[in-house]
Amino acid sequence: MMSKLNITELTELDTELLGYLSIDKPESFFLFAGAGSGKTRSLVSVLNALKHRYKKKLVLKGQRIGVITYTNGARDEILSRLEYDNLFSVSTIHSFAWSLIQSYQNDIREWLRIDTELRIEELEELISKGREGTKTHADRIKKIESKRVRLENLNSIKKFSYNPNGDNFSRDSVNHTEVIKMCSDFLSDNEMMKEILTQKFPILLIDESQDTNKDLIEALFKVQSEKSKKFSLGLFGDMMQRIYMDGKKDLGKQLPQDWKRPSKKINYRSPKRVIELINKIRSYDDDHIQEAIEEANDGIVRLFVVSGDVDKQEIEKKVMEDMASITEDVLWSGNDAKVKALILEHHMAASRMGFSDFFDPLYASDRLKTGILDGTLPELRFFSDIILPIVKGHRSDDAFKISRVVTRNSPLFKPEIIREKENQTDILEEADLKTKSLISLWEEGNDPTLKSIINKILDSGLFNVPELLKQAFEWSESSEEIEAEAVDFKNVFAFVSAIESPFSQFENYHIYINDDAIFGTHQGVKGLEFPRVMVIMDDEESRGFLFSYEKLFGAKEPTRTDIRNESEGKETSIERTRRLFYVTCSRAKESLAVVAYTNAPEALKEHILNEEWFSEEEIIELSADN
Ligand SMILES: Nc1ncnc2c1ncn2[C@@H]1O[C@H](COP(=O)(O)OP(=O)(O)OP(=O)(O)O)[C@@H](O)[C@H]1O
């Protein structure tokens, strides 16, 4: 992503940006430039320079410099580069929005009242136009009922809550969409809010602003135009890397006259051949052409066209071996391979890494989704923070590690239990016996199911088992029919299925979500960079409908909707996919393999050659027969 900088390393462009961010004569700017051009690096170096220039002045006035990032990961990275200096408030858009509005509880209540009434009216209108007796009709009635309950409850809520990283399902919580909309409305319509924002943050910089929610961006534009004498807004981004539907489509098109538009032409990240490819991909959208740095390598790219009923894991292994010999870079294959393989959806990693039985049922539940992707679900923490370290301790014969996990987590070591026992060695012996019995599940290379682990622990009482797991275990053992109306029915059921899988599946899932795996998603690698990148494109395996590589690569005709959207000037799935393809290819620092699974290899190849994305020598065909 970024390299550590000190302020003496300011580039000409950084100095230009610094000039705009003067607190005496503020100006706003829009720095939009291609992948790898050093936008994030400029952001950090400019912030460091601002610290030296203005820290004393701003601290005296109780002011800070605001920075909005797209992900928590990017926030952490920038914060660490700024050495956690308190002058900066670095946060994701959701945390930022909530921190601005959370003290205005009455305004939140009123906003929710009006918004909920409006949503009810909209639903009533839809109901009056739609057909009765359909599922949609029944769903709408249900939605109205739940919104009415929310309206009735509004007055009794003492304090609204919000967790930017959570699901916000509780009665007093507001959801992600509401927080952004509320903040945008408050900023657009409320003079006091504009004053609060600009007083607090005379300088506000937004990274990846092409994907920042459009309502909020528009509200911030409004604040900037009204408070231009004391507020600088700096946008960093790249419209070609807009990959979420939330962003402002025409961002930057009608900027006010007084906004500055600095530019960057150099790509510092990628070798020449990769830059040539991404310039080509980009040429359909705009005429921004990048150049490589003088000392850049030539770099190698290959397109693997794969057809037929193939074993995908075998194919991808072969691609990596081929790349190792083509590039003469051993890190492309073997046990020590250092490759980033980009898949479109998480379940594609699950099937390749062998954790689908565990992952798929949980990921299908809306309420569990977030927690399973970031590993914060308490039911998963039970396995990751207690069972996994014990298993690892067992494998490495580390009795000390095991006993530390047990003493920290077992209710046997609670002070009140210890006090009750006359002889404390009894507790140690009891814990030891129960731990050994748990570990015996892995004896002789066994791979126990999660269910058998839960069973063992429920029997021994060595640890407390989280409620959902306990319930899932009981349901899976019960011969009675469970009522669909039961509390948390769907979630418990998801676990009933997931706990049938072996522990090794949990372990693989754990490796995946902790970024230790070679797999990452196309969307998730935004802002990152890797020496060797393998982009996997597989429409058949992906479940969404937003992207289609087969269409982008000419292997499938555009649908009537695509043609209609195009003629109406609306975005098509081809355009969206092209931007995602630009993001993935531009992560490569040394070499790039693109793997296209297709039903029409000939058409695909012809299209690619016509469009001159890859040359004949760069295309390798693989099928079930070779
Ligand atoms: N002026 C520079 N001199 C040397 N290296 C640079 C310079 N600017 C950026 N780099 C390096 O180039 C790479 C890309 O930089 P950075 O991540 O800041 O680009 P970006 O424009 O934010 O990229 P993207 O839009 O693709 O996320 C990093 O490795 C960074 O250290």
TrEMBL record:
Catalysed transformations (reactions): Couples ATP hydrolysis with the unwinding of duplex DNA by translocating in the 3'-5' direction; ATP + H2O = ADP + phosphate + H(+)
Keywords: ATP-binding, Helicase, Hydrolase, Isomerase, Nucleotide-binding
Binding-site list for ATP: A33, G34, A35, G36, S37, G38, K39, T40
Biological-process GO terms, alphabetical: recombinational repair
TM stretches of this protein: none
Entry keyword annotation includes Transcription regulation: no
Assigned EC number: 5.6.2.4
SUPFAM superfamilies according to UniProt: P-loop containing nucleoside triphosphate hydrolases
Gene3D superfamilies: P-loop containing nucleotide triphosphate hydrolases
Boundaries of every UvrD-like helicase ATP-binding domain copy: 12-284
EC class name: isomerase
Metal-binding as UniProt keyword: no
GO molecular function: 3'-5' DNA helicase activity; ATP binding; DNA binding; hydrolase activity
PANTHER family, per the entry: ATP-DEPENDENT DNA HELICASE SRS2 (PTHR11070:SF2), UVRD / RECB / PCRA DNA HELICASE FAMILY MEMBER (PTHR11070)
Protein name as annotated: DNA 3'-5' helicase
Originating species: Gracilimonas sediminicola
Classification lineage: Bacteria, Pseudomonadati, Balneolota, Balneolia, Balneolales
